[in-house]
Design brief:
The complex is a heterodimer of chains A (347) and B (277).
Chain A lengths: L3 E10 L2 E11 L4 E5 L6 H9 L6 E6 L2 E2 L10 E4 L11 H11 L4 H14 L15 H14 L4 E5 L7 H18 L2 E6 L2 H7 L2 E6 L2 E6 L1 H6 L4 H6 L4 E9 L2 E4 L2 E4 L10 E6 L4 E4 L3 E10 L4 E7 L5 E6 L12 E6 L5 E4 L3
Parallel strand pairs in A: 3-8, 3-9, 6-7, 7-8
Antiparallel strand pairs in A: 1-2, 1-4, 4-5, 9-10, 11-12, 11-14, 12-13, 14-20, 15-19, 16-17, 16-19, 17-18
Helix pairs in contact in A: 2-3, 2-4, 3-4
Chain B lengths: L3 H33 L19 H4 L7 H33 L4 H13 L2 H11 L4 H4 L5 H22 L3 H10 L4 H12 L1 H17 L2 H5 L5 H11 L1 H38 L4
Helix pairs in contact in B: 1-13, 3-7, 3-10, 3-12, 4-7, 7-10, 8-9, 10-13, 12-13
The chains are: A alpha+beta (347), B mainly alpha (277).
The structure holds adenosine-5'-triphosphate (ATP) and magnesium ion.
Adenosine-5'-triphosphate (ATP) binds next to strand 2 and helix 1 of chain A.
Chain lengths: 347, 277
């Protein structure tokens, strides 16, 4: 059982608090994404797990054993970095072989293992090339093979796709997920790209300012965000201002919406955060005019400027539903607030 | 006008090149004539340009009994200085790059100090402590620490530039995450990727050692530069011959240096152009 646990890990750099008591439990074979804006402490968490930094307080456990004081080279963790980290003086083969040599394995074992790894990342034909003769995506695949070659207990990836272009990013993302499931390795994956996190993870750990905001499956984090920060950060959100008109009920203008997550004193000013797919064009609802229509392939986003709130909301309509719409058309927007996050506006 | 300009653009650099070439070559040529022509100095004019050339002036120093020990000592000092410099400088420079990158400018300034403070200041210091440090200064190898300091402006910059050219932190982290300790990381990752910088730092150090006179003279060590000085006093022609030889050897060494450091790049390029399948 190789689990990875952060227990109240706190880390500061001078006056900067990078991690403010992080608690996180990665289960055996699970892939958890650390998702959050720049500077929220994702890399710091990963580097503490890897042993490149040491926590001010708290502990890191692997398989329930405290490794907080173990030096990096004795932790047996595979790591893939954001920037290209292959050894420039070594070929692909020798890069993958690096960790195996360190472990003093026999030559035949090493050759076999390198061969397996090259096959796993589908780069057998590139075995004798040098890093600078590979594309960015290929380099990151070699880096993954190199990290996995030594059969690490935990795999750590720090934004491994951020330097690649969009197309390569999605293919490699899926490949990383395939390999991770195939190997069954406990994995921590850092990203600031919510789409990437939603696509690849078993669970997502949304972070903000060194704290854990929400930990949950991609569906949970997307459909039922527990804080306004998570709601805004993951996916896109429409913001509607209104007042709390009763328990679980918010009035936006004269439209009353059932919002089960709304709490607070009646009469308080609130902001409702609603996904584009929870808005529909209907016969009744908030009145506005079409400001733009964005074709997105499978669906279409219709931007509607609401008359009274003077706010632009985007409505996700199904395929073909927006064909008859042109900019300036008068429409009604109906709101399904069942999953809406309600944020009290401080006066 | 327009036809004139490009020609002007080619002519001026050529003229500059020729003039600066003459500027460097003329003294060398006169040195060569003085050292290698068995003609009295006052008769060295155009008419005697091709008279009585002989390489005996170059090799005469070899027959002097003091030459070989001096050469041996200087080579030993050069080797020792290179080793001590690399042993001290590599870990320090790596540590500065990884742990306190902000201090790089300050460290660079400190390492340039020996270049700005004349060697004579160091000598003055030696004279003061000399009576109290006989046990140390009596050894011929006592020169090594001084030479490490003297070479610092060149060696540190060379290593520093090498470190800047690679993503040191990431490479070290990658190596350590693969199970390599610090020593192994140094030997298998850092040094191979700093090869060019290390080679040039070593050559520069050796060049400083092979040319230093002031401190060696103060401490009365029979190094090659000191031998050269006394030998030239005794035998001017052969002395300058020796100088010329030293110059040629240095040029040769630097030519080899640039070949060695460029060879890898070239082999990489040729491998690239062969287009692997
Ligand atoms: N070595 C360091 N010295 C000083 N401050 C640091 C250091 N490393 C990180 N920090 C600070 O700690 C905070 C968290 O940094 P961290 O690199 O973990 O963020 P991140 O979430 O990975 O951001 P990004 O998405 O930009 O990579 C930041 O404010 C950063 O400036
Ligand atoms: Mg980061």
């Amino acid at each position: 059982m190789t689990t990875l646990d952060f227990i109240s890990v706190r880390k500061t750099f001078g006056p900067t608090v990078a991690l403010e008591g992080l608690d996180l439990n990665v289960r055996q074979g699970e892939l958890i994404s650390l998702l959050g804006p720049s500077g929220c402490g994702k890399t710091t968490a990963l580097r503490i797990a890897a042993g490149f930094e040491f926590a001010d307080s708290g502990a890191v456990h692997v398989a329930n054993a405290d490794i907080s004081r173990t030096p990096a080279h004795k932790r047996n963790m595979g790591m893939v970095f954001q920037s290209y980290s292959l050894f420039p003086n070594l070929t692909v083969t020798d890069n993958i072989d690096f960790g195996l040599r360190t472990r003093r394995m026999s030559k035949t074992d090493r050759q076999r293992r390198v061969g397996e790894m090259l096959e796993l990342v589908e780069l057998t034909a590139f075995a004798r090339r040098y890093p600078h003769q590979l594309s960015g995506g290929q380099q990151q695949r070699v880096a993954l093979a190199r990290a996995l070659a030594v059969q690490p207990r935990v795999l750590l990836l720090d934004e491994p796709l951020s330097a690649l272009d969009a197309k390569v990013r999605t293919t490699l993302r899926d490949e990383i997920r395939r390999i991770q499931t195939e190997v069954g390795i406990t994995t921590l994956f850092v990203t600031h790209d919510q789409e990437e996190a939603l696509a690849i993870s078993d669970r997502i750990c949304v972070m903000s300012q060194g704290r854990l905001e929400q930990l949950g499956t991609p569906t949970e984090v997307y459909r039922t965000p527990t804080t306004a920060f998570v709601a805004r950060f993951v996916g896109s959100m429409n913001e509607l201002s209104g007042t709390l008109s009763g328990p679980g009920e918010v009035s936006v203008l004269d439209v009353r919406l059932g919002a089960p997550h709304a709490t607070g004193a009646t009469g308080a000013a609130v902001t409702l955060l609603v996904r584009p797919e929870d808005l529909t064009l209907a016969e009744t609802g908030l009145v506005g005019s079409v400001a733009n229509v964005t074709f997105q392939g499978a669906s279409t986003l219709v931007g509607v400027r609401l008359d009274v709130l003077d706010r632009l909301v985007s409505v996700d309509v199904g395929q073909g539903a927006a064909d008859h719409l042109t900019v300036g058309d008068r429409v009604h927007v109906a709101v399904n607030a069942a999953n809406a996050v309600c944020e009290t506006v401080s006066q | 006008m327009s036809a004139y300009k490009p020609r002007f653009g080619r002519v001026v650099p050529t003229i500059v090149l020729v003039i600066s070439g003459l500027f460097f070559l003329a003294p060398l040529l006169t040195l060569a004539r003085f050292a290698l022509q068995n003609v009295p100095t006052i008769l060295l004019g155009w008419s005697t340009l091709f008279d009585k050339w002989s390489i005996s002036g170059l090799t005469k120093a070899f027959d002097d009994p003091a030459f070989w020990p001096a050469l041996k000592l200087s080579l030993e000092l050069a080797g020792g200085t290179v080793l001590l410099t690399l042993g001290l400088l590599l870990p320090t420079a790596i540590w500065v790059h990884m742990r306190i990158p902000k201090a790089r400018a300050l460290i660079e300034f400190l390492t340039v100090l020996p270049y700005m403070i004349p060697a004579i200041a160091l000598v003055a210091g030696i004279v003061v402590v000399k009576p109290h440090a006989r046990w140390f200064l009596d050894s011929d190898y006592a020169l090594i620490p001084f030479y490490v300091v003297l070479a610092l402006p060149f060696t540190y910059r060379s290593i520093d530039a090498g470190l800047r050219a690679i993503d040191l932190t990431t490479l070290v982290d990658a190596s350590r995450s693969l199970g390599a300790g610090w020593i192994e990381t140094l030997g298998r990752v850092i040094v191979p990727n700093l090869r060019a910088a290390i080679v040039s730092a070593s050559f520069l150090t050796a060049a400083v050692v092979m040319g230093e006179y002031t401190i060696a003279n103060t401490l009365l060590k029979e190094t090659l530069p000191r031998f050269q000085r006394t030998f030239t006093g005794r035998e001017p022609q052969a002395g300058y011959g020796l100088n010329l030889l030293a110059l040629l050897v240095t040029v040769l060494l630097f030519a080899i240096l640039s070949l060695v450091t460029k060879k890898r790049e070239r082999s990489l390029i040729s491998r690239l152009s062969r287009k692997p399948t």
